Amino acid sequence: VLPALYNNRMDLRLVPILLTLWISAVYSGSHSLRYYYTGVSDRTFGLPECSIVGYVDEAQIVRYSSDNQKFEPATQWMKQKEGPEYWERETQKAKGEEAWFKHNVKVAMDRFNQSSGTHMIQRMYGCELGDDGSIRGYEQHVYDGREFFALDTEEWVYVPSVREAQLTTQKWNSPEVNAPERNKNYLQNICIEGLKRYLSYGQAELERRVHPHVRISDHQSADATELRCQAYGFYPREIDVKWVKNGGDDVHSEAAKEILPNPDGSYQLRVTAEITPNEGDSYACHVEHSSLNEKLIVVWPGPNKDGQNMGIIIAIAVVAVLLIVAAVAGFAIYKKRAGKPDAGYTAAANRDSPPSSIVSA
Questions:
Q1: Where is the Ig-like domain (predicted)?
Q2: DSSP 3-state percent helix, strand, coil across the chain (nearest 5)
């Protein structure tokens, strides 16, 4: 099931599986414009019957819900840059797409011989502009969390992913409909023009760079050690974090590298690796991010290093205390042997001012 987050203040943010897949596929230095459409057969889970969200890179820029039937800005710079005519025009388009999605949810249910239950159809399409000027487009359709059919942007033909999608792709590929050619023009021209325009609107936000903070730790068991490297607070989302052995060998990690969002718009990632430390081996966490001028390397100090350091600190403290006790005892013995001071000696002059060495201790 493709999850969604929604609240009553129309802060609509769909976070589908496709979003994660396509964000991870966007190359470093490139920019993308993507739209996600979702239609549901009923309101069982509190979702609107139709919703639309648009993203430039990782920033949501627009949204639409059948609950209020308004195409709205999701960022301040979109609100400021586009006038009322734009939002009215896009609202009318979205209303037409809402009717299209409601119809196609029923069509998909018929294809799968389903007459009841909660079902979801989604469409994702967009374009990408590389830093070298290269462009590419994509379009994908999903039903109940599984790929339904997609647009092959090399042959420019719709390809079914399941048997139930064959009738739809045959119709869309037919000369009468010719959907691939129409969408080719959109993805290669109209979409790219829109992407460039939106990038100029939100340049300050979209091109900001925040370097990651990195923290390493370990968890030791009887037969292995789990190394943990956490990078957090970075932006943009693309990052490479890995454990390296002896300066050159990548350490395999069984855990999935899932990049998670933070409330402030930054991201975090934790990478773990299980090792069996041997004498002479070294391990370090390597981090590469667009905010860094060079690779960030954080070396693991080795097993029990913290415990050894703590032992040294405790030993120093014990020695200091023993020296203080010895000094006080020696002074007391001296006083006892010395007896009363001479008339010209003022014993109380420094009575309330102990030596600085004792204060420091």
A1: 212-298
A2: 35, 30, 35
Domain containing 84 equals 4-206
Q: Are 119 and 111 in contact (CB under 8 A)?
A: no
Q: How far apart are CA 35 and CA 55, in angstroms?
A: 6
Helix (H, G, I), strand (E, B) or coil at 320: helix
Question: 97 and 53: one domain?
Answer: yes
What is the C-alpha to C-alpha distance for residues 334 and 326, in angstroms, rounded to an integer? 12
223 DSSP assignment: S
Give residue-wise pLDDT tens across range 63-87.
999 999 999 999 999 999 999 999 9
Domain boundary among 175, 206, 237: 206
For tokens 């969200």, the residue is: 53
- Looking at 176, 191, 206, the residue that finishes a domain is 206
Mark whether 84 and 42 lie in a shared domain: yes
Are 145 and 180 part of one and the same domain? yes
Q: What is the pLDDT of residues 208-260, one digit of tens each?
A: 899 999 999 999 888 889 999 999 999 988 899 999 999 888 888 766 678 99
339: left (phi over 0), alpha (psi -120 to 50) or beta: left
At 30 the three-state DSSP class reads: coil
